[in-house]
Design goal:
single chain; 182 residues; binds adenosine-5'-diphosphate; 5-stranded parallel β-sheet; alpha/beta
């Protein structure tokens, strides 16, 4: 049994994988059902709480740590908090689970499994083009590593499913395992 009704839903995957798109759809749907929900988006955090951080290994760890502490605060207050952040290293995945266990909070790791090729052809923010052109350094998938999660709770195949179908899988998973309806 968990300490609060809150759940951290951590979405990891390459840039352009669909993490934010899916997180926003899930959040909207849960809000429509009357649940408290918040999307702690990596890009948004980077423009504020993590604005002094870059993309070195050390800074990426610190960014993930800050995002996790934001998630913990919301989760402790009964929010379903969705965190779309690249989260490229196995060590981070392990730490995140431990951090939530420490406070007895529900933690769900969702791997948004979009191939580099698909992300690059979508290139929603034009970042792959910049990275390939050499104007962006330490770009995950290009000149920085992405270590796939070893044991994610849920894997979303965005090549075979629409954003709405992916969001539905997340919601079904949450209702089956965590959200009580009575
Ligand atoms: P991320 O947050 O992972 O960087 P975004 O959600 O910002 O990625 O961008 C993903 C892009 O891919 C969006 O333009 C979205 O419409 C598109 N897309 C295409 N198919 C899917 C899918 N099945 N799931 C999620 N996004 C998809």
């Amino acid at each position: 049994m968990y300490k609060s009704k809150g759940i951290t839903v951590w979405l990891t995957g390459l840039s352009g994988a669909g993490k934010t798109t899916i997180a926003e759809l899930v959040c909207q749907e849960l809000k429509n059902s009357g649940l408290a929900c918040y999307v702690a988006d990596g890009d948004t955090l980077r423009s504020g709480i993590s604005s002094n951080l870059g993309f070195s290994r050390q800074d990426r760890f610190e960014h993930v740590r800050r995002a996790a502490e934001v998630a913990v605060l919301f989760s402790k207050n009964d929010y379903v908090v969705l965190v779309p952040v690249i989260t490229p290293y196995t060590e981070m995945h392990d730490w995140l689970r431990k951090r939530h266990e420490e406070d007895n909070l529900a933690f769900v790791e969702v791997y948004v499994a979009t191939s580099l090729g698909d992300c690059e052809s979508r290139d929603p923010k034009g970042l792959y083009k910049l990275a390939r052109g050499g104007s962006l350094e330490h770009f995950t998938g290009i000149d920085d590593v992405y270590e796939k999660p070893v044991s994610p709770d849920l894997i979303l195949d965005t090549a075979r499913n629409t954003p709405e179908q992916c969001a539905k899988s997340v919601i079904s998973f949450l209702y089956t395992r965590y959200i009580k309806t009575n």
